[in-house]
Amino acid sequence: MHKTVSMSENGRRWAGPAAVAVALLGVYVAGTSAVLFRPEGSDVAFWWPAAGISVALVALVPRRHVLPVVLGIFAVSLAANLSGGQTADLSLAYSIANAAEALVAGMLLKGPDGRLVTLGHLSDFVRLVVAAVVGALVVGVLGALAAYALDDGSLPTTLRNIFTSHMAATMVIVPVAMTWRQRTSEAPRLEFAIQVLWLAAVTCALFIPVHSYPLSFALLPILVWAGLRLSPRAVTIELLVTCLVAILLTGQGRGPFGDTGPAGAISLELAAPLVQGFILAGALVVLPLTMAVTQRRLALEVLTERERLFRRNFTESMTGMLLLSLRGDRLEIVDANETALQLLDDGRTRVVGRYLDRVLSGPSTLRSVVREMVGGDLDGWRGQVSVPHRPTSHVKIAISPLTRGADATFSAQLLDVSAEYAALARTAAAERLTSATLDTTHCIILVCDMDGTVVRANRATSTLTGFHEDEVLGRPVWESIIPPHRVPIVRSMFSSPDGSAIPGSREADVQTAAGDVLRIVWNTDLVRDEDGTPRYAVMTGIDVTTERTTAGLMNTLFQAGMSTAIIGMDGRGRITLFNSGAQALLGWTTEQVRGRQFTDLLDPTEMAERTADAHGSGWSALTSTIGEERESQVDDWTWLTAGGSRRTVSMTLSGGGSEFGPQAGYLVVGRDVTEQRHSQMMLMAALEKERTASERLRQLDAAKNEFVSTVSHELRTPVTSIVGYTELLADGSPVEPDPQQVPLLDTIARNGHRLISLCNDLLTLAGLDSDGPAWNRAPIDVRDLVTQAEDSLRPMVRDRHLKLSFVVPEQPVVVVGDAIQLERVLLNLLSNALKFTPDGGLVTTSLEVRDGEAWLLVVDTGIGIPHEEQEGLFQKFFRASTAQDLAIQGTGLGLSIVAGILAVHGGRIGVESAPGEGTTFTVRLPLQDG
């Protein structure tokens, strides 16, 4: 056993291995004592208390621990028999019999849940008797056969002695375990003390003297007293103690069953069965009586508690309750709770003692209802009555018979529903008011449940749509007024139970019964219950068909293709209308300028000059130019476009509104006259600029071609030859070089390679400056470029104390471009990072995808670049001051080549740096479509 096990529903718990060990020790001590003190000449013990302890132990432990416990009982019984001087073969046989008895009887005493049953019912006592009989038979048969076979014992005598001793032990000891957690005594302490002392005195008087008087029955009345007044636990303990005293003293030759000497009245063979029979008789008499008394007491307690609960429910009920008694064919009130008294009491006459039909005004058939219930034709009656002194009251009543016959009794429950009726009346009045309000409103009002079914529609709905009320109510809203093309949209609005898909406001089409289409502006609100759950959607629709048609015509007119700019403003000069001519002229959209001041579109310098002498704001000065004809003179103004350019516009400002009221708005009509005013000057300037630019481009192109030709034929070819011959000399092909010449040859080769690299850079720049280099374009996984760059650069830092880090994603990052040129971009950036990062630094290359672009970041912890010099990094031959101060070699072409390659690929490069804090270059390339 490895944990504490709960043993019964009343809280009995077995303490675990320690308790099992103590119990097994008790089995050993009891068994040894029984063997040692058995009467001389007897093959079996006078009494075997170890049997009761063993059965109780098996019954207490969980089923999974039964087998180990049974084996322990076998071992302990074997040790006890051997210790008591029993022969080995008999000890073994008796131990097997004892273990079998414990197993069989203990399992019979377990309930369905595997726990020891309690002596709470007579069925438990029957189970105890059956377990004791079966267990005693098992051990008696096995023990008698063993004694007969191994020790020439008398088979009937041995069977009788073992059966009675073991059954008695089980009937006395096991009940103590079954009732251990129950209360000790039910009687007062004084009575309990007197009963215990009396029992002790009578027991001692009967079993201490040596006599053969048949007075053992004198104990039974005292034990019966215990059964009537004490708890089952106290009774089982007293029975056990009494039996122990009787067994011990009888074994010493005392008491009415102990006179077994040569001249005694009782033989040795009869003494044991007699005392065991005495024990069994006491157990069979006292234990059932105790259980019967206990059950009766518990039943009385339950009945008392139920009566108290009923009375409390009756008196404290929030529902009016009456107890009624039959008087002829009328019901008399014999009791009423406080709620009923408050409902029925008129302040003048007592309610109790009056007839029910006097305190309640109900149907005239109330007496016939009573007769039907008395006769058994009606089990109960429900109805509605009123209280006479409260004419507007409404009371629901339910009458049920409790007993029938001449003295029949009834119960009546009263529920005052007057407040509910009053609330219903108020609700009906409010409903009529709401209906009148809705029917006089000239807009569509629909109330739908959360499934979209229309539960209410006002009169205007039928007037505007032509659908009769019956064609709308009780049907989904999309089956009547919704056009077919909008049915899926409206269905989806009611697809969410919480109403989250229903918009608060919207504008949509409605189809009339005649097939016409109305334009409706809808506003929707949700009606929620007390829990906040939406129950209904109230939709209010205003017909704006005429307004939208007129507005559409006006909008078509204003948005028609024209070169004239028309701008409308409110009284404060804020733009409200911006036609297509104004959009084409200024480059602004209506949404961009709506709500802005019109003066923001004018040149501020010109505005300040022309309104300097006016008082107030610029807008006030501008409107002051409007004459009596409600229109200003035509004048030229400089307007600002969205791109910041200036346009000369000939415009007029006119006011709108009635002649008796303030200006409701203003209208500006403008025409772009920039071309007319400056066409000749602009044409001449354009021709001169074009000629100058063409000549400049021709000169630059010629210079570039000449320079590239020079680099290709006059510089690169001889430098390549020099490098080649230098490598031959260094390899020792013609002749082995002198060791002092090797460094010189290396210097020549290194500088030659630098010149070749410079030539390549210049040629690349020349190609980038052309109309477009002929590069191969194909899908490229940028991760491969990073891997190739890593392989190329690792050897370069082998002799340096630099850390290189390359981070690429798991998924491909595909762009379209020339792999060689893009690899050159990465190598140039990484070479610069290695060049300008001192030992002990870190260079990190990471690739990621952001916003549909491939982001390649090269981060170093090097010397950094001053912020004011970063704008020139990508210009040809530019070198930062930090590189020049540290005398770091370079041509200043690498980053300009990088920028040029990225431009051809549609990419961008950015830089973030600060002196001493390192540099971050960010390359952004568009990803491949799809």
TrEMBL record:
Keywords: ATP-binding, Cell membrane, Kinase, Membrane, Nucleotide-binding, Phosphoprotein, Transferase, Transmembrane, Transmembrane helix, Two-component regulatory system. GO terms for biological process: regulation of DNA-templated transcription. It is a multi-pass membrane protein. It comes from the Bacteria. Its main location: membrane. Pfam families: HATPase_c, HisKA, MASE1, PAS, PAS_4. Signal peptide: none annotated. InterPro entries: HATPase_C_sf, HATPase_dom, His_kinase_dom, HisK_dim/P_dom, HisK_dim/P_sf, MASE1, PAS, PAS-like_dom_sf. It is found in: Cell membrane; Membrane raft. GO terms for cellular component: membrane raft; plasma membrane. It is an enzyme of class 2 (transferase). The chain crosses the membrane at residues 44-61, 66-84, 129-150, 162-180, 192-210, 230-249, 270-293. The keyword Membrane applies. Residues 710-929 form the Histidine kinase domain. It catalyses: ATP + protein L-histidine = ADP + protein N-phospho-L-histidine. Residues 430-484, 550-604 form the PAS domain. The keyword Kinase applies. One of its GO terms (molecular function) is phosphorelay sensor kinase activity. Its EC number is 2.7.13.3. SMART domains: HATPase_c, HisKA, PAS. PANTHER family: OSMOSENSING HISTIDINE PROTEIN KINASE SLN1, TWO-COMPONENT HISTIDINE PROTEIN KINASE. This is histidine kinase. It comes from Nocardioides euryhalodurans.
